[in-house]
């Protein structure tokens, strides 16, 4: 297990604390609709950190071509209908470009600054001229409005329990997922970023905000330049 990351519950747990079976059960929310509205119809997408395909499959159903990248072979085994590549995101260099690159799941908030830089450089080198990078950010209060819980229409409860500072601006975040027949927990490191810090991180990778896609600014369309 990667230092600072931990997961508990039934089934395989990836090095960053994600439970494969848990992610296979999580509901699809509005992310595919947000993505579909921000890119051309039928676009060729590179999805970084696809996991089990929770967003991959709805995007395929909407007519997109998806290349799904994840560092977990166990996660990618659940992906159907898409080209899959097992690789750490920050090391990826496919020698090709895509109409849009997706970096969801708050990956831009990686606790390790060098990892974040690697993620954003991967986004920048794989986006085609005139294409875009779609990034999901943490919302306001993600680290401070705690504890909180959300009951999902799928019949489970998501509890964000704590975010404890561990130094250098990084928090250790602890979450719990309660299903009728199983409970999973995940502990991971995350670095809160203000809007200004986020935009500075983009600029360092040669990216800039084109527009914020949601009122809460959690989804961003970025372009090169």
UniProtKB/TrEMBL annotation:
The keyword S-adenosyl-L-methionine applies. Residues 46-135 form the Methyltransferase type domain. GO terms for biological process: methylation. InterPro entries: Methyltransf_11, SAM-dependent_MTases_sf. GO terms for molecular function: 2-polyprenyl-6-hydroxyphenol methylase activity; 3-demethylubiquinol 3-O-methyltransferase activity. It holds the Pfam family Methyltransf_11. Keywords: Methyltransferase, S-adenosyl-L-methionine, Transferase. Its EC number is 2.1.1.222, 2.1.1.64. This is Class I SAM-dependent methyltransferase. The lineage of its organism: Bacteria, Bacillati, Actinomycetota, Actinomycetes, Kitasatosporales.
């Amino acid at each position: 297990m990667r230092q600072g990351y931990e997961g508990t519950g039934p089934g395989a747990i990836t090095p960053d604390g994600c439970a494969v079976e848990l992610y296979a059960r999580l509901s699809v929310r509005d992310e595919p609709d947000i993505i579909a509205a921000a890119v051309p119809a039928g676009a060729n997408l590179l999805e970084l950190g696809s996991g089990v395909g929770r967003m991959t499959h709805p995007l395929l159903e909407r007519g997109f071509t998806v290349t799904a990248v994840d560092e977990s072979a166990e996660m990618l085994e659940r992906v159907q209908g898409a080209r899959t590549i097992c690789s750490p995101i920050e090391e990826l260099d496919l020698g090709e470009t895509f109409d849009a690159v997706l970096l969801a799941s708050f990956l831009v908030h990686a606790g390790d600054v060098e990892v974040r830089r690697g993620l954003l450089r991967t986004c920048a080198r794989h986006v085609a001229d005139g294409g875009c990078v779609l990034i999901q950010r943490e919302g306001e209060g993600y680290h401070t409005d705690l504890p909180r819980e959300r009951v999902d229409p799928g019949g489970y409860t998501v509890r964000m329990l704590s975010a404890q500072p561990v130094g250098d601006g990084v928090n250790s975040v602890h979450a719990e997922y309660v299903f009728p027949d199983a409970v999973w927990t995940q502990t991971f490191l995350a670095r809160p970023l203000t809007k200004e810090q986020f935009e500075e991180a983009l600029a360092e990778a040669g990216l800039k905000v084109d527009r914020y896609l949601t009122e809460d600014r959690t989804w961003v369309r970025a372009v090169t330049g």
